[in-house]
């Protein structure tokens, strides 16, 4: 920028010449010098001020900005391979050949704890319709470190994989067991002073706790009255009396943070590195179902999608849905499965020639893939445009 200013100032007085159309300016009566060669203090000050502003403005564009930039990330075929190995592997149960693609989609996040972005990068992202710019505090709590982000994303990915296996097996009516163990107790809650970390919930009023759904049902049936809660603590069963309290949602809770431990009848492993978060759960579950069932779920078609999932097969909302649809389109996907809870962000932002179907459960997702892969229409399936 400094060189540009020097050239411009030279160009400002280069009009004095000797050609037929040139005009030699009058001499300044005070100095005897041509007036065009004399630069006033006012003009010099303006040039210096302008140059300083440009330099400072350029430097400001390079400074870190309090924003994050979300861009379309790569996609990964859950029924394909990654680094020459199956992304999903099954041992101890018969599997079947698959074709086509069931892509999980990702978002590349720059800025915040992951490393600062400059104002120039933010401005470029604002101009690019495929990117999104968000304030850092909108995404990460103040003081969050990169290590914490990586740890949370890794934990979420592991949890989503376990939930995906559970949801897939439940969809296929393959039995498995799950234990609920106490991971923490809320201060002032009914469980405080009674439940301890590591306690395994066995029964509520004599009814077996076989998972989150059965626990919720048993607690709701108490109506807030004292319940007999049986736990396994240090290998021994203990009987406790806990009175659940009603939540803002109208359900009854005991105020404990719970961890779910699954025991599956065979091994399912998912090989995916450097990708974090829980949003791939639905596509993992679809990939597992395709591998465990005869026939080809996709019929060779290219599907992509996103959505969290729980053991009961409920599909939850995710972030960056617009960038994920763009990533799916860029990878060649024909169809995209979007969580019903994300329909507000989907409507009006669907890339050209990408068919988007909204889903609320894993059963919805399976039905959508089977229908579209079989040549059926998307009209009878979930539509985000109808919900907008």
Sum this structure up briefly.
This protein is α+β, with helices and mostly antiparallel strands and 388 residues long.
Describe this structure in words.
This protein is α+β, with helices and mostly antiparallel strands and 388 residues long. It has three domains: 2-62, no CATH class; 73-108 and 145-173 and 265-387, Ribosomal Protein S5, domain 2 (2-Layer Sandwich), CATH 3.30.230; 177-261, Pdz3 Domain. 32% of the residues lie in helices and 26% in strands. The chain has eleven helices and 22 strands. The chain has helices at 2-12, 41-62, 119-127, 136-139, 146-171, 212-222, 281-292, 321-330, 343-346, 362-373, 384-387; strands spanning 64-65, 67-77, 81-82, 85-86, 88-91, 101-111, 117-118, 132-135, 177-185, 200-204, 207-208, 227-233, 236-242, 245-246, 252-253, 256-263, 267-270, 302-305, 308-309, 315-316, 335-339, 355-359. The longest helix has 26 residues, at 146-171. Residues 1-37 and 53-63 have low confidence and may be disordered.
Give descriptors for this structure.
single chain, 388 residues, alpha+beta, Ribosomal Protein S5, domain 2, Pdz3 Domain, six-stranded mixed beta sheet, 11 helices, globular
Helical fraction equals: 25-40%
Overall mean pLDDT stands at 82
CATH class of the largest domain: Alpha Beta
Percent strand: 25-35%
Can you list the strand order of the major beta sheet? 8-2-6-18-21-22
Q: Any idea what the CATH architecture of the largest domain is? A: 2-Layer Sandwich
């Amino acid at each position: 920028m400094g060189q540009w200013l020097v050239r411009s100032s030279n160009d400002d007085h280069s009009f004095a010449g000797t050609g037929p159309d040139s005009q030699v300016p009058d001499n300044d009566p005070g100095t005897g010098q041509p007036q065009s060669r004399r630069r006033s203090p006012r003009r010099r000050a303006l040039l210096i001020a302008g140059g300083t502003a440009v330099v400072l403005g350029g430097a400001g564009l390079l400074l870190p900005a309090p924003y994050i930039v979300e861009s379309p990330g790569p996609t990964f075929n859950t029924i394909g391979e990654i680094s020459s190995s199956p992304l999903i592997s099954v041992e101890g149960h018969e599997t079947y050949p698959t074709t086509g693609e069931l892509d999980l989609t990702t978002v590349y996040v720059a800025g915040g704890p992951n490393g600062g972005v400059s104002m120039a990068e933010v401005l470029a992202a604002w101009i690019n319709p495929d990117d999104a710019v968000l304030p850092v505090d909108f995404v990460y709590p103040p003081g969050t470190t990169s290590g914490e982000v990586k740890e949370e994303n890794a934990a979420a990915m592991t949890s989503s994989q376990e939930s995906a296996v559970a949801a897939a097996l439940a969809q296929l009516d393959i039995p498995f067991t799950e234990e609920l163990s106490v991971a923490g107790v809320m201060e002032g809650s009914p469980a405080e002073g009674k439940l301890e970390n590591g306690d395994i919930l066995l029964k509520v009023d004599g009814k077996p706790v076989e998972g989150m759904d059965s626990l919720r049902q048993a607690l709701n049936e108490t109506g807030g009255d004292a319940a007999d809660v049986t736990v396994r603590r240090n290998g021994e069963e203990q009987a406790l009396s806990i009175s659940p309290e009603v939540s803002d949602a109208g359900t009854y809770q005991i105020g404990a943070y719970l961890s779910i431990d699954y025991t599956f009848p065979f091994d399912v492993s998912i090989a995916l590195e450097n990708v974090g978060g829980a949003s791939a759960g639905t596509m993992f579950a679809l990939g597992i179902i395709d591998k465990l069932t005869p026939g080809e779920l996709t019929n060779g078609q290219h599907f992509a999608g996103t959505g969290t999932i729980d053991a009961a097969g409920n599909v939850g909302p995710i972030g960056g849905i617009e960038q994920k649809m763009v990533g799916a389109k860029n990878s060649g996907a024909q169809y995209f499965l979007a969580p019903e809870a994300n329909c507000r962000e989907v409507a009006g932002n669907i890339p050209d020639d990408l068919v988007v179907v909204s889903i609320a459960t894993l059963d919805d997702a399976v039905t959508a893939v089977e229908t579209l892969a079989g040549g059926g229409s998307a009209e009878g399936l979930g539509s985000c445009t109808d919900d907008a």
